[in-house]
């Protein structure tokens, strides 16, 4: 497994997104644990989660607890950087709400610490801007958690270029990651990716394969990815991740998974080398 950096931590160039293992349509716990263990066996050392990755109102942090259980039962669990997030909520009716208040973020971080069973969160990210709360107040709360040692590194998610610059300033140049949606079907985060490259901040594409329900359709929806996959004898999903990795050394995709075989396929993307001509075709398509 090739590696990249988030802050001062070396991580696998492909991470694992935990959300599909905890929301609607999730697999049973046995398969989820097997999926996480397969990721670790493949060399994955970055796992992304959030306290909002749950289904029912009474199980906040389901995914965090699941990941903590999986890491504790694997001999490589100590080598994994767990990235979690706060500021998004799920009332339990399938909807998503926001609370970016400093009070909520502090309480959410404390709860994540307990569920993960750690003294400090490896990477804590503000999940999504809350229009009811000044962005500076929300990021200021993340800064305070960093200064107090509750978190080791700080990041933001679903941010635009101005918010990236503002967050980095508030954090005193200590912003290490930006987690935004980016995929063949959703390319509007290119400006954020370029800014992260310029500032040497890790860019973590979420739903890089198009999301839980559409990842399997990537090849049929995007012909260049299918054609190049056929030429290499690999999946279109693997081509997609290799394409993202080629965009910048700061890119660390975090494809979600709920089956061991998809984790292994994603991890293998770090070994797929695409030609400049192929990358140009994928960029255009």
Give a brief rundown of this model.
By secondary structure, this protein is an alpha/beta fold. It contains 11 helices and 11 strands.
Topology:
Blueprint: E1 3-6, E2 9-12, E3 16-17, H1 29-41, E4 46-48, H2 62-72, E5 81-86, E6 88-89, E7 97-98, H3 102-116, E8 123-126, H4 135-147, E9 154-157, H5 161-170, E10 175-181, H6 190-199, E11 202-206, H7 218-221, H8 223-232, H9 236-247, H10 260-267, H11 276-284
Parallel strand pairs: 3-4, 4-5, 5-8, 8-9, 9-10, 10-11
Antiparallel strand pairs: 1-2, 6-7
Helix pairs in contact: 1-2, 1-10, 3-4, 4-5, 8-9
Notes on the protein architecture:
By secondary structure, this protein is α/β, with parallel strands linked by helices. Helices cover 40% and strands 15% of the residues. The chain contains 11 helices and 11 strands. It has helices spanning 29-41, 62-72, 102-116, 135-147, 161-170, 190-199, 218-221, 223-232, 236-247, 260-267, 276-284; strands at residues 3-6, 9-12, 16-17, 46-48, 81-86, 88-89, 97-98, 123-126, 154-157, 175-181, 202-206. A 7-stranded parallel β-sheet has the order 3-4-5-8-9-10-11, covered by helices on one side. The longest helix is centred in the middle third of the chain and has 15 residues, at 102-116.
């Amino acid at each position: 497994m090739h590696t990249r950096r988030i802050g001062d931590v070396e991580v696998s160039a492909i991470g694992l997104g935990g959300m599909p293992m905890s929301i609607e349509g999730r697999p049973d716990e046995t398969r989820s644990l097997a999926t996480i263990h397969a990721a670790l066996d493949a060399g994955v050392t970055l796992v992304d989660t959030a306290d909002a990755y749950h289904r029912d109102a009474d199980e906040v942090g389901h995914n965090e607890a699941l990941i903590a259980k999986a890491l504790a039962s694997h001999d490589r669990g100590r080598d994994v950087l767990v990235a979690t997030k706060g500021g998004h909520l799920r009332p339990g009716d399938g909807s998503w709400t926001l609370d970016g208040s400093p009070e909520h973020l502090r309480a959410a971080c404390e709860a994540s610490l307990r569920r993960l069973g750690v003294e400090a969160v490896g990477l804590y990210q503000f999940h999504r801007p809350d229009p009811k709360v000044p962005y500076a107040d929300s990021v200021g709360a993340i800064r305070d958690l960093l200064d107090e040692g509750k978190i080791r590194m700080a990041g933001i998610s679903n941010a635009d270029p101005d918010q990236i610059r503002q967050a980095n300033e508030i954090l005193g140049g200590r912003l290490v990651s930006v987690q935004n949606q980016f995929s063949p079907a959703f390319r509007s985060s290119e400006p954020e990716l370029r800014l992260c490259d310029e500032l040497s901040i890790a860019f973590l594409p979420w739903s890089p394969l198009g999301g839980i329900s559409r990842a399997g359709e990537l090849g049929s929806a995007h012909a260049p990815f299918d054609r190049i996959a056929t030429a290499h004898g690999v999946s279109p999903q693997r081509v997609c991740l290799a394409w993202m990795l080629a965009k910048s050394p700061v890119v660390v995709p975090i494809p979600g998974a709920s089956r061991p075989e998809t984790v292994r396929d994603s991890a293998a993307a770090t070994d797929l080398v695409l030609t400049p001509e192929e990358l140009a075709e994928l960029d255009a398509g």
